[in-house]
Amino acid sequence: MNPRHIAWLLGVPALAGTAALGVGWLDGRTTSAIAPVVVSQAAAQTPPARQPLYYRDPSGGADFSPTPKKDAMGIDYVPVYDDAEPAAAPAPVTKETPAAAETPAPGGHGRILYYRNAMGLPDTSPVPKKDSMGMDYVPVYEDEAKQPAGTVTVSPERVQMLGVRTEAAGLRTMTRTVRAVGTVAVDERRLAVVAPRFEGWIERLLVNETGQTVRRGQPLFQVYSPELSATALEATIARQAQADMARADPAVRGTMAGIAAAAGARLRNFGIGPGSGPSFTLTSPMDGVVLEKNAIQGMRFAPGDALYRIADLSNVWLLADVFERDLGQVRPGQDANITLTAYPDRQFIGKVTFIYPTLNAATRTGRVRIEIPNAEQLLKPDMYATVEIAANAASAQVLAVPESAVLDSGTQQAALVERSPGHYEPRVVVIGARANGFVEIRSGISAGEKVVVGANFLIDAESNLRAALQSFVGTTPASGQEKAR
Fold first, then answer.
1. What is the distance between the alpha carbons of residues 206 and 218, in angstroms, rounded to a whole number?
2. CA distances (Å), 326 to each of 240, 310, 362, 400, in order?
3. Which of 161, 225, 267, 357 would give a disulfide with 200, using CB separation of 3.0 to 4.6 Å?
4. Which helix H or strand E contains 425, and what residues bound it?
5. Helices 250-269 + 226-244 axis angle, to 10
């Protein structure tokens, strides 16, 4: 037991100085266990009424009390006043301790209001305290209490340890790259099928290879058709009779002219020009490449049989399957960068021309048509390709922050705004379009404000952010002691 314990047991105040009026021994004897006590005559007088800030353990232990208290040995706790030694810690602002409101805390943070649990548990103390693990409670200063509701405070050491990074919200053009896959297809407007409109036999093939390049009007094959021969002969006779009766009666000339015109029209409907003969020649309707050849020399064909399929591959389509979530960003006229497996070192440029009105229910994708010039004939039907479409998520510049700054709870989105170094305010935000790692902020954050983009989830865990967000829906702590963070 130290001298102060003995002094308090005897009801005599102990003073550290030696300039008092009376000096003596407590029991009149000199022993090694009992130290001298300086007794002041002023002790007998009634001291001025002062309110203690708090009471501390008389043995010097790390235990404090806001009210008078005794230790396990029955010794009164020592009162600490506002003019006590620097080691004494000030107490919070309470009705019982008004003097604490005038006591500033060291370090420029204002006075200490209370102490909170270092591990973030909902436990506070008006005086310094240790938790069950021996960790000191963290002081909460006056300037922290002035922060907006729900503000999170993290010490500089903790900020550095968590690796907190911030970035200012700013205006930007939201350009998003929509990625998809697809296959090359023939331009349907540049595709033709050779299908005779009459019955006949193929006498001679003039284009007899699939893949062969043909020109418009180039002969493909010669055919024999009794029906076609009869129609051609009829047209020839009608024209000859019309010429022979040039000086005949007008009615007769008119009749022969009608017969000749009807025969010529039938030939044109058959796809054959004027002329007659035992065999007729069919030609290519367009420039292109023979994709399919079903014609075989000597075979008989019926009206409507497709003997040739010819396509112009100077311009092709890419039919890309775009995910449903990206379809709203794709517009006709947008440029597309295309890479094919066959030519990994080359990039082709196309343009979106059409968005199909249906959706694949199994894959949840929509089909987009992209036109690509193919002058070198490098792109072939059914080639596999990947495509990147530069889509503008917004028509003008919008306020945006990195996607990592947004904390999504499923029902609302929030971001941590840096009020000052180490102080972060959670705010509910309304988001818009997303593009290339950024997200549009429609409300909740102003341009230039810094948001946490790194370690925000760690701050969330560190400070129980979800409890702080309850203040936005009307749940406000009754006092600072209900919510330490």
1. 9
2. 69, 35, 16, 19
3. 225
4. strand 423-435
5. 150
Counts of helices then strands in the chain (DSSP H, E): 7, 31
* Spatial separation of the C-alpha atoms in residues 483 and 462, rounded to whole Å: 14
E-assigned strand segments in 106-190: 112-116, 124-125, 138-141, 152-153, 165-168, 170-172, 175-186
Dihedral Cα 386, 387, 393, 399, nearest 10 deg: 70
CATH number of 178-187+313-392: 2.40.30.170
CATH number at 196-305: 2.40.50.100
User: Which residues, at least 6 apart from 180, have a Cβ–Cβ distance to it below 8 Å?
Assistant: 320, 321, 322, 323, 326, 365, 368, 386, 387, 389
Task: Give the span between the Cα atoms of 372 and 318, in whole angstroms.
Answer: 7
Tally the C-alpha atoms within 13 A of residue 177's C-alpha that lie toward its C-beta. Answer: 8
Q: Which amino acid is at 416?
A: L
The C-alpha atoms of residue 68 and residue 315 are separated, in whole angstroms, by 94
Asked whether 145 and 113 are in contact (CB, 8 A), the reply is yes
**In the chain, where the domains are located:** 152-174+396-473, 178-187+313-392, 196-305
* Distance, CA of 239 to CA of 259 (rounded, Å): 8
Per-residue pLDDT of the chain (485 residues; tens, 9 = 90+): 454 544 444 444 443 333 333 333 334 443 444 344 444 444 445 555 667 777 888 887 767 788 888 888 888 888 887 654 444 444 443 434 333 334 444 444 567 878 878 776 777 888 888 888 888 888 877 666 666 666 777 777 878 888 889 999 999 888 888 999 999 999 999 999 999 999 999 999 999 999 999 999 999 999 998 888 888 888 888 888 878 877 777 887 788 788 888 888 888 888 776 555 667 889 999 999 999 999 999 999 999 999 999 999 999 999 999 999 889 889 999 999 999 999 999 999 999 999 999 999 999 999 999 999 999 999 999 999 999 998 876 667 889 999 999 988 888 899 999 988 888 888 999 998 888 789 999 999 999 999 999 887 777 665 554 454 544 444 433 333 333 33
Q: Among 359, 377, 277, 368, which Cα is nearest to 331's?
A: 368
| Structural tokens at position 429 | 């935000």
Phi, psi of 223 (to 5 degrees): -130, 160
Query: Taking every pair of C-alpha atoms in the chain, what is the biggest distance, in angstroms?
Result: 172
Under 8 Å between Cβ of 192 and 222 = no
User: What is the chain's length?
Assistant: 485
Query: First-to-last CA distance in the chain?
Result: 41
Question: For the domain bounded by 152-174+396-473, which CATH number is listed?
Answer: 2.40.420.20
Structure tokens that stand for 295 in this block: 């014609």
Q: What angle do CA 451, 165, 395 make, to 5 degrees?
A: 45
CB 111 within 8 A of CB 90: yes
